[in-house]
């Protein structure tokens, strides 16, 4: 009898808590979905298709996909060995290396852009030397790639390191006892076992590179067909044809949604 009364007394509190949780979740979902849904409601399918045929939209889409792909490949090429070393080797100053690796995540994009300009600009620390060789980096497509690599690399390196740390060292030790070199162990044991995490990190890095704005506009400029990526094209077309800006934004939303699905799929396969 006493337990029945206590259950009845607890029900009103549980109902209130459930209602509060429902309101919080519903409010957050509305906050996220309403602005995204508004993009699709403010443009007709005909206007969307017509905008995708505009030169400014086509140039921005092609340039963004190309530069983001190249920057992701660079991040994977250089970030994989760095992540493996930081996951397996203990050396003096490793925490400093990890901190510097993560710094672009919290660094304001404008700071990243001006830092790259001071380093690789025509009068920059490195750029002045390159200018003497006839090589100009700032305000070129190369500058777009460098800006994307700078801001997107931590997303891959952090994920890659966590993936390598999750690999049981006993598998690597067993391969070494069989005569495999460290490089062979990396390519035949460590990378295959950490593959899903590496793919997830690469996808996230690609998405971050695709959405980069602040560092790109300061270091590479906003020149159509050369440095104007999709985020920069949105900024430019908003001052003229809003339909083009909405269309580019919808394309980025679709790509972002696909990225999230891809990451979830690869993560679920790993589990």
Tell me the name of the CATH homologous superfamily of the largest domain.
MetI-like
Q: Please, how many helices?
A: 13
| Poorly predicted segments | none
Which of globular, elongated, flat, extended, rod-shaped describes the shape?
A: globular
CATH fold group of the largest domain: MetI-like fold
Secondary-structure element string: HHHHHHHHHHHHH
Provide the number of structural domains: 2
Provide the β-strand percentage band.
under 5%
Structural class: mainly alpha
Mean pLDDT: 89
Distance between the termini: 46 Å
The CATH C-level name of the largest domain is: Mainly Alpha
How much helix is in the residues? over 70%
Oligomer status: single chain
- Rounded to an integer in angstroms, the radius of gyration calculated over CA atoms is 24 Å
CATH 2nd-level architecture of the largest domain: Orthogonal Bundle
Secondary structure: number of strands: 0
Largest sheet: none
Descriptors:
single chain; 271 residues; mainly alpha; MetI-like fold; 2 domains; 0% strand; globular; molybdenum; transmembrane; NifC_ABC_porter; transmembrane helix; MetI-like
Structural account:
By secondary structure, this protein is mainly alpha-helical. It has 2 domains: 1-41; 53-270, Orthogonal Bundle (MetI-like fold). Helix content is 81%, strand content 0%. The protein is built from 13 helices and no strands. α4 (94-106) crosses α7 (141-166) and α7 (141-166) runs antiparallel to α10 (195-210). The radius of gyration is 24 Å and the shape is globular. The mean pLDDT is 89.
């Amino acid at each position: 009898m006493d337990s029945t009364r206590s259950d009845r007394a607890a029900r009103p509190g549980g109902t209130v808590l459930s209602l509060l949780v429902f309101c919080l979740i519903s409010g957050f979902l509305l906050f996220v979905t309403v602005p995204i849904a508004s993009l699709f409601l403010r443009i007709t399918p005909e206007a969307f298709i017509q905008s995708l045929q505009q030169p400014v939209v086509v140039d921005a889409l092609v340039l963004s996909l190309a530069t983001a792909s190249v920057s992701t490949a660079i991040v994977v090429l250089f970030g994989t060995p760095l992540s493996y070393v930081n996951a397996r080797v203990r050396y003096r100053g490793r925490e400093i290396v990890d901190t510097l690796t993560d710094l672009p995540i919290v660094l304001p994009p404008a700071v990243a852009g001006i830092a790259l300009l001071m380093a690789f600009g025509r009068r920059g620390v490195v750029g002045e030397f390159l200018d003497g060789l006839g090589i100009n980096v700032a305000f070129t497509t190369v500058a777009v790639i460098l800006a994307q690599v700078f801001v997107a690399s931590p997303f891959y390196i952090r994920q890659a390191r966590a993936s390598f740390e999750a690999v049981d060292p006993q598998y690597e030790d067993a391969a070494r006892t069989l005569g495999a070199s460290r490089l062979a162990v990396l390519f035949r044991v460590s990378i295959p076992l950490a593959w899903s995490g590496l793919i997830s990190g690469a996808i996230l890095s690609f998405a971050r590179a695709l959405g980069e704005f602040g560092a790109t506009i300061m270091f590479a400029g906003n020149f159509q067909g050369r440095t104007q990526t999709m985020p920069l094209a949105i900024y430019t077309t908003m001052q003229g044809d809003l339909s083009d800006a909405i269309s580019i934004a919808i394309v980025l939303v679709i790509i972002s949604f696909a990225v999230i699905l891809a990451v979830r799929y690869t993560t679920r396969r790993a589990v």
